[in-house]
Design a protein that fits this description.
This protein is an alpha+beta fold. The protein has a 6-stranded antiparallel sheet. It is 26% helix and 10% strand. The protein has helices at residues 11-16, 39-45, 94-114, 150-154, 164-176, 191-194, 217-226, 262-266, 278-283, and strands at 54-57, 61-65, 74-79, 120-125, 135-139, 161-163. The protein starts with 10 loop residues before the first helix and ends in a 13-residue tail after the last helix. The protein has a single domain (11-26, 35-229, 248-283), classed as HIT-like (HIT family, subunit A). The chain is built from 9 helices and 6 strands, in the order ααβββαββαβααααα. The structure holds zinc ion (2 copies). Residues 125, 128, 134, 136, 296 line the site of one zinc ion (ZN). Residues 264-290 have a biased composition (Low complexity).
Length: 296
């Protein structure tokens, strides 16, 4: 295969004359075999076998339907370049991540043209159940019968979900850090730090709401689906705004405790949902580990 991360292809040029595909989700997930954790690897290796599950392809990415959609629109941007886990992401992936964000912006713009009431989140689960890094592009209605538990919602609406723009900014921080350059360490996502977010409170994050339902998922869901306030703003899609205060979070999540020094401090956008480096992880208090979110 000629595909790979080293190809110099301008994504904008590639998308210029592209006809936007019809969003038409398959009836179910890709049948799971014994190696279900590797399903995304199979898709990038032999996409021709999974056409019904693929939304579109570019030279660097396969965009597929999430097998367990948690909202009206739910896609996965999967790089063709193998990156097995979030902990493998490093500054060498910066250009790839920026292309993924450009692609997400292109897709979201067109999905919103069809459903102007929707807003979108784009990012990655910090603890992934599947091999191969992938970025969720999900509408924030979370109106799906697949959203069955608190952790399903929290996996997209707490710092467990790392917005793509934040990943990019964090890696740029690493690259610019004095003496690190291309030798910068990969990002780290220690389960002890991120899994507790799945056990946190359920707070309506529609713009201007903030109602807290503790852990009462059914009540929360009923409210969220009928709350008349606008959906939260887009997440993970924008160029980060520099110098923004880290005091408030669009999803109403508490700011993570972190050392705000040097490049680390610079990366405090999107409500200070910071991503660990080895140093920050060492400084974070240990917390009990929880289950993962399953699905895609
Ligand atoms: Zn509400
Ligand atoms: Zn996922």
């Amino acid at each position: 295969m000629a595909f790979g991360g080293s190809l110099h292809v301008d994504l904008s040029a590639e998308l210029e004359d592209r006809v936007f595909p019809t969003y038409s989700a398959p009836l179910g997930p890709i049948p799971q075999s014994s190696s279900w954790q590797d399903v995304l690897l199979k898709v990038i290796e032999t996409p021709e076998k999974y056409e019904d599950h693929i939304f579109m392809q570019t030279l660097k990415f396969v965009v597929m339907y999430d097998g367990y959609p948690k909202a009206n629109n739910h896609l996965l941007i999967v790089p063709r370049q193998k990156i097995l886990t979030p902990n493998a992401l490093n500054v060498g992936h910066l250009d790839l991540l920026k292309d993924a964000r450009r692609l997400a912006q292109w897709i979201v713009q067109r999905l919103r043209a069809k459903s102007p009431h929707l807003t979108f989140a784009c990012g990655m689960h910090t603890i992934a159940s599947l091999h191969q890094v992938h970025f969720h592009v999900i509408s924030q209605d979370f109106d799906s019968e697949r959203v069955k538990h608190a952790k399903h919602w929290l996996s997209f609406n707490s710092p467990f979900f790392a917005p793509l723009s934040l990943l990019i900014e964090q890696l740029e921080g690493h690259a610019n850090r004095k003496g690190w350059g291309s030798l910068a360490p990969p990002l780290e996502f220690p389960p002890a730090r991120y899994e507790p977010y799945l056990k946190g409170p359920l707070r309506c994050n529609r713009t201007g709401c903030g109602r807290d339902f503790g852990r009462e998922f059914k009540k929360f869901q009923q409210h969220y689906l009928s709350c008349t306030l606008p959906l939260p703003p887009n997440r993970g899609l924008d160029e980060p705004s520099r110098g923004k205060s880290a005091a408030s979070s669009p999803s109403g999540e508490p700011a993570l405790k972190k050392k705000k020094t040097g490049a680390e401090g610079e990366a405090a956008n999107e409500g200070a949902k910071s991503i660990s480096t080895a140093a920050a992880a060492a400084a974070a208090p240990a917390a009990p580990a929880g289950g993962d979110d399953g699905g895609g």
